[in-house]
UniProtKB/TrEMBL annotation:
Residues covered by region (Disordered): 440-459
Domain of life, per lineage: Bacteria
Domain Beta-lactamase-related: 24-334
DUF7586 domain location: 352-436
InterPro entries noted in UniProt: AmpC-like, Beta-lactam-related, Beta-lactam/transpept-like, DUF7586
Protein name from the UniProt record: Beta-lactamase family protein
A Pfam family hit: DUF7586
Amino acid sequence: MTTYPAALLPATERALLHRIAVAQSEGRTPSLAAGVAREGEVVWTGARPSARGAGSDDVQYRIGSITKTFTAVPVMRLRDEGLLDLQDPLEKHLQGTGVGDVTIAQLLGHSAGLSAEPPSPWWERTPGSLRPELADVLGDGTRTHPVGLRHHYSNTGYTVLGSLVAAVRGEPWEEVLRREILEPLALDRTSAAPRTPYADGWAVHPWADVLLPEPAEDLGLMAPAGQLWSTVGDLCRFALFLAEGDDRVLRASSVREMRTPSAPAESDEWDSAYGLGMQIVRRDGRTLVGHGGSLPGFLAGLWVSVDDGIAAAVLANATSGPLTAVVAADLVGIVAQAEPRIPRPWQPLPEVDQELLALTGLGYWGTYAFSLRLTADRGVELQPQLGTSRGSRFVAGGDGTWTGQNGYCAGETLRVVRREDGSVHHLDLGSFVFTREPYQPDAGVPGGVDPEGWRGLGR
């Protein structure tokens, strides 16, 4: 059952059109195209076209660094297939780079300490043939920062990841991308080279309303960092995949892993982080995941709010101008606020295990009260009664235990400790004892419980 009507309300559509019209006008870009998707479908597209018609929602624009998210997906597929581990050093799978000690996870999360850009000349405005080997991209291999200690955005790191994919698969990065992502997701208007119709890239003079054409170079080895062309429709469909996963491409748990922060944010960026190929931001009280992108002549923004089930993409053909990532976030917010998600109907579980049911209710870690409730598929949810600390969802394992999925308890094991007669003694969560009463005397609380029990201060 859908949680939204099939189409947006007219007032919502007008608000979306107004937002992109302001962005195109004030941003002084020849054209701007945008799209919104929710609950698995593209529900709105809009454009402010130039005289040459470049604003059509089927026109390709260059998407710049949104390409990095596409590059991260085949890396995660290789991990899921057991062909590599994210903690493997690069050297295990791609030799001779000079930076082989960094891990694949560090490259994905921009914490490998590599430089942001390759050696000059400016790689985005010069042909990739100037950098035919990884050594030409990495230069002397000097580390900008210590490995693993901070997030430092690196185009060169994603060049290395593209070469890693090619080395393990034994075929070019572009071919792997086409076969493993674009074709299964039916992203027919996404490609490494532009396909008609596509927008021309322009530079707009900062002090006059005149244009200068920008070159559209083939980036060669740098392609995995920013090569792709796409449309707002394709990007919206890709964003929905980033929210839900697709077993033909990447399972939901792996996509969720990509959306999890992988490195500390800068001290002045507490509302933004980086996962594994995805940017993560907090805006107006909601979490958005996706990526921004730019190349000379083009700007791009793609965000999805997983909680709202809404995604938005914005593309423009100017080197500078509208903040497309901000506009895309605004489009998500417009729809979420005007047409909030309708909750799915509550339904009882089809069946229940009586032993599990007996575990539910209040439990105490010391004097902290928690509720334990059943969820689908024999899962459980542990939530504090006061505050929000240390709450977590758990999924059932095959051995009578549960594994934490989020928060403080992510990855931790919850198990039932029973007495000899089979009755529940206590719950153990990573060595923390949860009892039916605060400091229950017979529940084996570490450190023991004073035999005189609870008392007033006067005793």
